[in-house]
Write a structure and sequence with these properties.
This protein is 43% helix and 12% strand. With 348 residues, the chain is an alpha/beta fold. The strands form two sheets. Strands 2-3-4-5-6-7 form a six-stranded parallel sheet. α9 links the parallel β6 and β7. α3 crosses α10, α5 packs parallel to α6 and α6 packs parallel to α8. The chain starts with a helix and ends in a 9-residue tail after the last strand. The structure holds 5'-deoxyadenosine. 5'-deoxyadenosine binds next to loops.
Length: 348
């Protein structure tokens, strides 16, 4: 197939203007996956070449006041050892990450009531002062607009908050009544307005999900126009209400990644840990389907096993920041190259 045909196919099927029917036919299983992945890879190379951006992930607290039905760190889970890293521990992780070459730190955690605005602003300010050339990404859930503003002024640049599902009824089947899709969206629009680079996203194959829900996810992302889009397969966790639900599939996740790349050519799209958990080469396959970010774990080794969002989460091997050389080799073997720079979104 010639280059010209690739572009024609892309124009026909996967642009911001694609019809609902065209998108639904891409979401459904077909024999055309290879073509879809090739197209997505082509578009990714047009915008980002072979660059893969690395982010150092620090899972700094697994304490959460929420009780999401899918999540292993939900407050209702009593079979988990809870931890909260201190400011010096977090800074030590950043220090190690910086030495390893990371220029983005992602502070991710549950909605921990002890991490008030004062506490979080102190942590963010300290990282900002020590690492002025780095991006600070927060992923600490739903907060007030005022809180997001204070954290931004303290030095945070980016924020990750997946919408999880853009269908309100489906949202209500995944979350307790205390949570709403409406508030989730409010948070995302507040973050954008304040000036954060914003990431959103959804789980693939979560319980009760249909292709029409996935279509709604794509349409919501088109309205939000996020800088980053994170997706991964739903993976069951044994101590949650969804313990017995089947995992999301690798194939559907890869297909959704490719569709996202085609619809959002300049987005930063990670090949997530969940993808690496569902298949030993999940993240390489993700890169080949259009992803361009990898987020190795920088958390202290002793704590990693407690950040159990889902069962069998990879946590000691090559996904860790300490094994950066190995990770780089894997990225090169997949046909790409790991980049150390701050890796801001490149708008076309
Ligand atoms: N399976 C897959 N992803 C999960 N997350 C939480 N629990 C699970 C699970 N059981 C994802 C959510 C959340 C992100 C931090 O992890 O999408 O936004």
């Amino acid at each position: 197939m010639s280059n010209q045909n690739f572009l024609t196919t892309q124009e026909l099927f996967v642009t911001q203007d694609a019809s609902d029917d065209a998108l639904l036919s891409l979401i459904a299983p077909t024999q055309e996956d290879t073509i879809l992945f090739t197209l997505a890879d082509h578009v990714r190379r047009q915008h980002y070449g072979t660059d893969v951006f690395l982010r150092g992930l620090i899972e700094f607290t697994n304490i959460c006041k929420n009780n999401c039905y899918y999540c292993g760190i939900r407050c209702g889970n009593k079979h988990i050892t809870r931890y909260r890293m201190t400011e010096p521990e977090i800074l030590a992780c950043c220090e190690e990450g910086y030495t390893l070459g990371f220029r983005t730190f992602v502070l991710q955690g549950g909605e921990d009531p002890e991490n008030t605005d004062d506490v979080m602003c102190r942590i963010v300010s300290a990282i900002r002062a020590r690492f002025p050339d780095c991006a600070i990404t927060l992923s600490i859930g739903e907060r007030s607009r005022e809180s997001y503003l204070r954290l931004f002024r303290a030095g945070a640049n980016r924020y990750l908050l997946r919408h999880e599902t853009a269908d309100p009824i489906h949202y209500a089947r995944l979350h307790p009544h205390s949570m709403s899709l409406e508030n989730r969206k409010r948070c995302l629009y507040d973050l954008k307005e304040i000036g954060y680079q914003v990431g959103s996203g959804f789980m693939v194959g979560s319980p009760f999900q249909t292709p029409v829900h996935l279509l709604a996810d794509l349409r919501f992302l088109q309205r939000l126009q996020p800088d980053m889009i994170g997706i991964g397969p739903f993976l069951s966790q044994k101590d949650t209400p969804f313990a017995d639900y089947p995992n999301g599939s690798l194939a559907l996740t890869l297909r959704m990644l490719a569709i996202l790349r085609l619809m959002f050519p300049d987005a930063l799209i990670p090949a997530t840990t969940a993808l690496g958990t569902v298949h030993p080469e999940g993240r390489e396959l993700g890169l080949k389907a259009g992803a361009n970010v990898v987020m190795p774990n920088l958390s202290p080794m002793r704590l990693r096993k407690h950040y159990t969002l889902y069962d069998h989460k990879i946590s000691t091997g090559e996904e860790s920041a300490q094994s950066r050389a190995l990770l780089e080799q894997r990225i090169i073997a997949a046909g790409y190259r790991a980049i150390t720079d701050i890796g801001d979104v490149r708008r076309s």
